[in-house]
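Batch job 17 of 40 flagged for manual review because the log was empty.
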Amino acid sequence: MKLGLFLAAAALLGGSVCGTAAAVAAGCTVGIRTTVSLVSDPTDPNVFVFETKDELVDYVSEHWNNSSEIFKHTILAPPGTPARVNSCSPKLAHPRYSPPVDVVNVTILGGPFRGKSGWVTSADMHVRVAATPAKGIVGQRRQPPAPRP
């Protein structure tokens, strides 16, 4: 409901919700349509991508019966897999010994699971920074050409 009011207000004000900057869902740490890399912690960098939001929330809360149950409803994305953020639910998952994390729906953009969508936590992704060509050292003044003899 709040997001709907936000979108309506943006339309009335003539603003673009999805302009050059990615639109951020209220309270989420990542913008919608942002390109991210899926990477978990350094000891096990692969990322579980869950079929449903509820399965991910249960997994993070440690409410699951056995490992085979997890593997039936996930794909295991290798570290660095590129993905696009489709939606975000802020602070929905509650790990036992950590602060709540966002639950994010992504579409995988590359690798063996390209085109598949699923759910990950905000802790398992990092925003990809687009490389830009260097234009010289910042703050360095351009030197005039040497005079011809």
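Reviewer: the log was empty due to a logging misconfiguration, but the result itself is present. Residues 2-13 form the longest helix (12 residues). Unflagging and moving on to job 18.
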